[in-house]
Specification:
The complex is a heterodimer of chains A (92) and B (239).
Chain A (H helix, E strand, L loop, with lengths): L1 E6 L3 H4 L4 E5 L6 H8 L3 H7 L11 E4 L2 E2 L15 E5 L6
Parallel strand pairs in A: 1-5
Antiparallel strand pairs in A: 1-2, 3-4, 3-5
Chain B lengths: L3 H6 L1 H16 L2 E5 L3 H13 L3 E5 L24 H12 L4 E5 L8 H5 L4 E4 L4 H14 L3 E7 L2 E7 L7 H4 L14 H19 L8 E6 L4 E6 L11
Parallel strand pairs in B: 1-2, 1-4, 2-3, 4-5
Antiparallel strand pairs in B: 5-6, 6-7, 7-8
Classes of the chains: A alpha+beta (92), B alpha/beta (239).
């Protein structure tokens, strides 16, 4: 099944573009997809802390809904899903 | 009542707002939390639009490295308190503005007093800790909190209405490490203008505001995207 990941702000530079498409197996969870995205130590560090939990200020939305309100990293992905991922933007 | 000067000064917008709308702006007191990049843009546009009363809070003094983005402060202001520099420029832009300048660091201890009788809060801060503090006061007082933030060419904005939208803590449960981000001056210019526009529409009750919508501005690609937001029922501030 095809799933699209959209990146925002500085994640566009870090993850190499505005969006990437993945061909995934049925039943893939958000955690699996984020692991796929973490293909370098720098990319992994942007998403996860040392305990391998998603950094709380990294927002991950599945079709516009924060996975926090779904099943978190265990949220199942479905064909056609769009996952939006963005970092904190905090300057003034 | 609007004076003859005010009727002429605002004539190009009174055709949209009506005199009653213009009077609403005049009767509103805005807290500008931060006199940096976002505060420069938002305070300037709110001042010239005819906001009647403004309290601007910042503890800092103008430094050379501020001048690429903080357009209220000029080369001749280096070393002055930002609030004094801001007050001088804003008052010169619109002498009708009643402006209070407060040189304090926003903290849990003083936040409620700093907000005082302000009708709304413009988030022009540069750190998450102060944003959480004012988010709490906005929730307690049930007044809107107009969030804005920038990084490089990027920016974001949303309008938080207590009781109806996700609060700042719902959106960002925890703060990132407080390292100062790179900022290109146009980013706070754009986001500060969006915040000012949101404030005007909210006061005038026209159009729609960024309720439960996080606007993401990408100045490198000239794109705006919107991310829908939801209240977090377990939010430790508003849940």
């Amino acid at each position: 099944m095809k799933v699209t990941v959209k990146f925002f702000a500085t994640f566009r530079e870090i993850f190499g573009g505005d969006a990437r498409e993945f061909e995934l197996d049925e039943g893939t969870e958000v955690q699996n997809l984020l692991d796929l995205l973490s293909d370098s130590p720098q990319r992994r560090k942007e998403l996860f802390d040392q305990a391998a939990t998603l950094k709380p200020y990294v927002k991950v939305l599945k079709n516009g809904r924060n996975i926090h309100f779904l099943d978190g990293l265990r949220t199942k992905l479905e064909a056609g899903d769009v996952l939006s991922i963005f970092p904190p933007v905090g300057g003034g | 009542m609007l004076t003859a000067d005010e009727l002429e000064r605002y004539s190009r917008q009174i055709s949209i707002f009506g005199e009653e709308g213009q009077l609403k702006l005049k009767r509103t007191k805005v807290l500008i939390a931060g006199a940096g990049g976002l505060g420069s843009a938002s305070a300037t546009y709110l001042a010239v639009a005819g906001i009647g009363k403004m309290r601007i809070v910042d503890h800092d003094v103008v430094a050379l490295s501020n001048l690429n983005r903080q357009i209220l402060h000029w080369d001749s202001d280096i070393g002055k308190r930002k609030i004094d520099s801001a007050r001088t420029k804003l008052k010169a832009a619109n002498p009708h503005l009643d402006i209070e300048a407060v040189a304090e660091t926003i903290s849990e201890a003083n936040a409620a007093t700093l907000v005082g009788d302000c009708d709304l809060i413009v988030d022009a801060m540069d750190n998450f800790a102060a944003r959480y503090v004012l988010n709490r006061v906005a929730l307690d007082r049930k007044i809107p909190f107009f969030h804005g933030a920038v990084h490089g060419f990027y920016g974001q904005a949303t309008t938080i209405i207590p009781g109806s939208t996700a609060c700042f803590r719902c959106i960002f449960p925890e703060a990132p490490s407080p390292s100062p981000p790179p900022v290109v001056g146009v980013a706070p210019g754009i986001v500060g203008c969006i915040q000012a526009s949101e404030v005007l529409k909210y006061i005038l009750d026209i159009g729609c505001v960024l309720e439960n919508r996080l606007l993401m501005w990408d100045g490198l690609r000239v794109e705006m995207n919107e991310i829908p937001l939801e209240k977090n029922p377990y939010c430790k501030d508003c849940g």
